[in-house]
Every structure is written in C-alpha cells, then in structure tokens.
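Final report, Chapter 2: Outcomes

The project's central promise was a pipeline that accepts a single protein chain and returns its three-dimensional structure in a standardized token representation, suitable for archiving and comparison. That pipeline is now operational. To close this chapter, we reproduce one record exactly as it appears in the project archive, with the input sequence first and the structure output second.
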Amino acid sequence: MNSILDKNLILKGKKVIVRVDLNVPMKNGSITEISRITKILPTLKLLIEKEAKIIILSHIGRPKGKIVSGMSLEPISKKLADLLNIEILFNKNEINEKTLAEINKISNSSVMMMENIRFYEKEEQNDDSFSKKISNLGDIYVNDAFSCSHRAHSSIAGITKYIPSYCGLQFIEEINALKKITSEITKPVTCIIGGSKISTKIKIISNLIKIFDNIIIVGGMGNAMLKNIGINIGKSVCDDGYKNLVGEILKKSKTHNCSIYYPLDVVVSKELNGNGTIKEINEVNDDEMILDIGPKTIASIKNIINNSNTVLWNGPAGYFENPNFANGTKEILDIVSNKRSKNKIYSVAGGGETVAVINKFNKSDSFNFISTAGGAFLEYLEGKELPGIKALS
C-alpha cells in the first residue's frame, strides 16, 4: 500500500479526496464523543501543511440512500473546524458538474466537506458510475477510514479504480498495530476476550488460536465455557449453541498448543442492579447471574499477563455498567497499565464496548494502540481480507 508519507508524492495545489470516518455518537444534535474526529487530525494537518486542496468524504448513521436531516455532517464539520482552528467549507449540495467548479475555486490548504456520502443510494452499492463520479472531484484519493474498510462501498473500494490512491496516517497506525499482534508478534502473546455471546467471537478465537499462546475468555462467553464443564451458571447469559462452539475452541487449542483460560471464581447477583457476591464457580444458584470475575480469576490473569510480551484485549470482563460488577474489568486495565508503564508489553485494545470501558475509566494510557474501528478491527482479527485494504493494495 502507498501512503501519503511517500516522499515522491507532491501535494501542493492537488485536489485530495480524503475518506474519513466521522460516524460519531450524537445526542440532541450534539456530539457526545470525539475520538474518531481527533484520530484523523494528523492526516488533515499534514495535507494542510503540504498545501493540498482537501475534499472530505464521510458518513454518519445509516440513511439508506435517503436525505435525512438528522444525519447531516454539518455539525461535525463545525467541530472539526474548531479542532483544526480553520474554516471548513461545508458543501450540502448534490454532487454534480458544479461541485468540481466549486472545489477548483478553493485555495491551497483549504478544506471542503461534502454532505453525508450515504445520502446516495449508489454509495453502499459500490456502483461503478458513482465511484467514477466522486473520483472526478480530485487528483488523489486518501483512505483514512480504516474503520469503514470492511465495507465494499464506492468511497472505500470503488473509487480506487479511477484515481491514484493512498492510505492516511490513522490507517497506517491501525494496520501496523494489527500486524504486531497477528503477524509480527513478540511472543508470548495473550488475548483477553469478553462480551456476551461466544457465537459473535468464535471466528476471531478460531483464527487467533493458530498464532496466540494464551486466550482468556471472560464475560458472557466465559459462562459458555463453564457450562461446558458442567458448572451451573443459573440464569446467566449463555449462547444456545455453546457445546459446538466450545468444542471447536478446545479442539483447535490442542492442535495449535494454545492455552485456554476461563473463570475460576465469579461475582453473582439475582439482579443486574444488585450488589454482587463472590462465589466459587460450583456455588452458583439457579436464581443467580454471573456478572463479573472474582479475585482468583483476576490473580490468574495477572500472572498470565506478567508472563506475556504482547496483549490484545477485546470485550469487558463483566457487566461494567453497574459499578458493583466493574472490578474485574478495572483490574485487567490496571494490570496491563502497570506492565505497559514499564515498557514490558505491547498492548492493543479494540471494539466498541472495549473503547467505551477504556474511556469510562480514563485508561487510554494502558495501551500502545486503541482501535476505534469496531467491525473492521474484528473482521481483520478473523483473518478476513478487508475490501478497503484490498483496494489500496
């Protein structure tokens, strides 16, 4: 893949189309979390410094090819302008022949943001004619939306057929971090994987078993592991098809010499808003739910992490929304943070809930890299070839 750091790439006066992910959470018209915006600032600042004419393409929500007033990028363009401390021209008109004339009028180092690209039905269809149409807006295309690169859409994949294409700085960071935990690993390497359903992560686990030394399974997925060995998990969350899924994990782990760990003790309650009681795994009653990991499990995880050189974390250890069941998740963050502070580990975290947990406990310094990519991050870990990466390659 070519990147915008290519020394031979002259950007002065060039019209550069930049695809970014500005699909940020909003409430009553206000942005509630800006990490996806701040992550694209380095690429935009570099293009401004190189005196390019910048045309931003992005989306918010799923308007399904219709114009939806509540899904306009205009409020986000204003926030981005504040963060860059420049004026951003917002173009809410339909992309047509006039658009290029408007872009040609802007001066070097200026930024124009187009309206939500998903207002166009042909975007998600990866329509060739639409891909060519948007490619005509610029001289160069830059993908800095790794988080959208599992989508075969016009502004991600199709456009690269018609215009010289490069990856942005954030895109490079995502790829480099994922390579360090999948193909350029410093062993021993450990994955801590949580979440409610094992069926949603089975492909990731199956792929990582081949290359990881340890996989620690917690959260609702840990319940499936416990149920498989005959432990009563009461009314805890558990996938219906847990036997086949757990069987697949255990069989592959033996083949690839990967150690699988699951809870040794748990925190239970009869209600999600309860206080919680620490119990051995064989003490759970029929009317109780497992909502966190206990101290023995935390001690075991600490020992595994302290003997690892690389750690990947995806998914909380318990029902962290209730502070009474957030201890396991907080302890894992502290363990990783402590070793990271001594430069004795390379740590990566990713996935929607994971990022929310890290932000909630202000633990971003616990990791070398935090991916906000969501679906693209998970599909990469499954071993899938992402359309956005393939297009740039």
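Archive annotation: The two ends are 5 Å apart (CA to CA).
This record, like all others produced under the grant, will remain available to the consortium after the project formally closes.
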